[in-house]
Amino acid sequence: MKHISLLLLAALAWSAVAAQQTSFDEQPMPTDVRRIHRTEFSPFDTRQEALTGKHATTAEHIVFAPPHRRTVAQMEFFGQYVEIPSAWIDNNTYLHLENLHSAYGVSLNGVTVAMSNDPHTPADYLLTPHLRQGTNRISVVLYPSRTPALDAGSPTSSRPRFDGCYITSQRRLSIFDYDVRITPDEKGETLRLSLDVIAENDFNGDETIAIGYDIYDPAGKLVDYAVRELSLAPRSRDTLHVSTNLGAEMRYLWQSGKPSLYRMMLYTKRNGKPREYIPLRVGAGTNSFSGSQILRNGKPVAIKSIKYNALGSRKEAATAIAALRKQGYNTLLPDVPQPKWFYEVCDELGMYVVEHCAINPTAESTNRTVGGTPSNNPSLADEYLDRVRGAYYRTRNHSCIIAYSLAGPAAGNGYCLYKAYEWLKSVERERAVICLSADGEWNTDIDKIE
After folding, report:
1. How confident is the prediction for the chain on average, in pLDDT?
2. Bridge partner list, 212
């Protein structure tokens, strides 16, 4: 009934907006459009910009900050015209959204491109199929969530709406995602780089992509570099696997209070010319667990944790986290997924993080009947899984994350969290998966975080 009521409300609101002859497509989207699950990154045009981390002149990066248009029946409408260069016609273009503060729908030139009930997890959506050269209109509607129970215990963001949103573009033959680890060998004597680069060919014919990387140790010494080619079939993705020895540098193992980070650059080449630079900072070592104990580099972690959600800017968060380090805390427990720079700061300061998915229901936590608690409502399983996938893929390459927490302590338990635990264990085979509301059931690796 809630879904029907929302659509009716949307229809009435749209009629009112249409009557005012607005030039924007200000209408909630009637179908679900799922986010793209991958590491959060936006490529740079040059190595210099990639090293600074600022898109000062990157042509394939546009800030998305649509102005407010009007409010109608609990819904807020925003819209922005975007000029698309002719060079983007052979590209895949993505919309990155965060800090919308509510459920949202997005249309591009009148076609649905994004829809989510999750106001907390930053997300990427593909724009390419409906993008055209020249002027494009992007319309956003913010409306009450169809799954408000999942956010009952979640904090409200203090950052401005649309803060951190952007449009980024990549050639149709490009890096789609990556997974990078630096770990000791079996004897614990040398460090090895394990790099998987997922490349995408969105052209209609066979293509070969040249993928390069270079990696510097924490002292600034170049320790390895290479360029390798990967052939891809039309409209496909494939993975370039790299495994190489980085030397006997066990002193560079990353851990709390010792944030040694390797600096790495991924890039592609076209006609022999480097392009699409993606900078990484990687901590050497392993995350695992044994019994009820979280391990870093095979040794138990004496956790001293505190709840913390990033407020304000990166600089303000860095100051606050550094102060918590001085107070003796070594682990942060956010209530929802955080901005990308939060994890970068924790990597740099040597602060552990237990990543928490955007699942925080509080009602009927002890009601184990079907539908008694949201966590035991099978109709919400897809929503639970989408939030877990969104949290996992965007942050899995950060050294600071020592475990994943599925839901808040009052979330109850049941079908949705069973499925969420099973999925996360299928892709994350080292770090602990924690369900704080498991209440003695099987779907948690560790019962509590001390």
Report:
1. 90
2. 227, 267
Q: What is the pLDDT of residue 90?
A: 82
Query: What is the rounded CA–CA span in Å between residue 221 and residue 137?
Result: 47
Quote the crossing angle between the two packed helices 340-349 and 314-326, to the nearest 10°: 40
Answer whether 214's CB lies under 8 Å from 224's CB.
yes
CA gap 332, 321 in Å, rounded? 9
CA pair distance 399, 396, nearest whole angstrom: 8
- 223 close to 216: Cβ distance less than 8 angstroms: yes
Structure-derived torsion over alpha carbons of residues 34, 36, 39, 42, reported in degrees to the nearest 10: -120
Contact criterion met (CB below 8 Å) for 405 and 354: yes
Mean pLDDT value across residues 182-204: 95
Question: What are phi and psi for residue 346, nearest 5 degrees?
Answer: -65, -35
What three-state secondary structure class fits 87?
Answer: helix
How far apart are alpha carbons 446 and 427 in whole angstroms?
18
**Helix/strand/coil percent split, the chain, to 5:** 20, 35, 40
Closest CA to 100 of 140, 70, 130, 129: 140
Kindly report, residue by residue over 257-282, the tens digit of the pLDDT: 899 999 999 999 988 888 899 999 99
**Using 50, 70 and 90 to split pLDDT, how confident is the model at 88?**
confident
The string of DSSP codes covering 127-165 is: -GGG--SEEEEEEEEEE--S-GGGGTTPPPP-SPTTTT-
Parallel/antiparallel/unpaired status of strands 273-282 and 262-270: antiparallel
| Distance (Å, whole) CA 138 – CA 112 | 10
Q: Helix and strand tally (H, E) in the chain?
A: 6, 24
Domains and CATH numbers, the chain: 2-171 (2.60.120.260), 173-282 (2.60.40.10), 287-434 (3.20.20.80)
170 contacts 92 by C-beta, under 8 angstroms? yes
**pLDDT per residue over 278-303, tens digit each?**
999 999 999 999 988 999 999 999 99
Tell me the pLDDT tens digit for each residue of 118-127.
999 999 999 9
Distance CA 12, CA 154 (A): 30
